[in-house]
Amino acid sequence: MLEACKPLLSGVGETGCEQMVARLQQMGGYAHGPLGSARPRPSAKAGGPRFQWVRIPSGSFRMGAEGVAEQLFKAGDMERAEARSRELLALADFHAEDWNYGNAVHKSHALLGRIALRAGDVDGAKKELLLAGQTPGSPQLNSFGPDFDLAEELLDRGEVSSVQEYLKLCGKFWKNPCVDYWLSELEAGRRPKMNRFDQCPKR
Predict the structure, then answer these.
(1) Using CA atoms, how far apart are residues 201 and 178, in angstroms rounded to an integer?
(2) Domain boundaries along the sequence of the chain
């Protein structure tokens, strides 16, 4: 697989290619590199190569790229939505200095958590929620706030502690009084409705 990867990642070099292969294996068979994509080959013969490499546009990592996975999710195509989210996360590894990096990490993990919930995997959803909260932020997240769809769905299932931890993580990049207000409401045993556009009282 490494040899097949090199021609597609000529701008990254062998080290970058090795990282892509490792990331592909870690994420279960789906990954994008700056110039190439690896996907499972369902028709591959037993014992043959499991992946084929296909060129993709170099501009795929851009604002709004994560919206493709969200649209697939809304359409009910969970398999492709998950694959697209994991591909974007793998691609993000090569763009850690890009201003859109934080958006890609946050939104991809948040969506993967919602997909996990649809499959009944609450523990997996909680893990993805915290990974979404570990984003370094972005111009958009810092100003307009993080996604709360997954947090709301987990609260509906009584998973308060995970949501509290998520709020604390988001408070590192989103300096909004709602974070402390919602934390205090949860601590008091109340169920706040988390909307990033709310006007919350300061604590």
Answers:
(1) 7
(2) 1-41+49-60
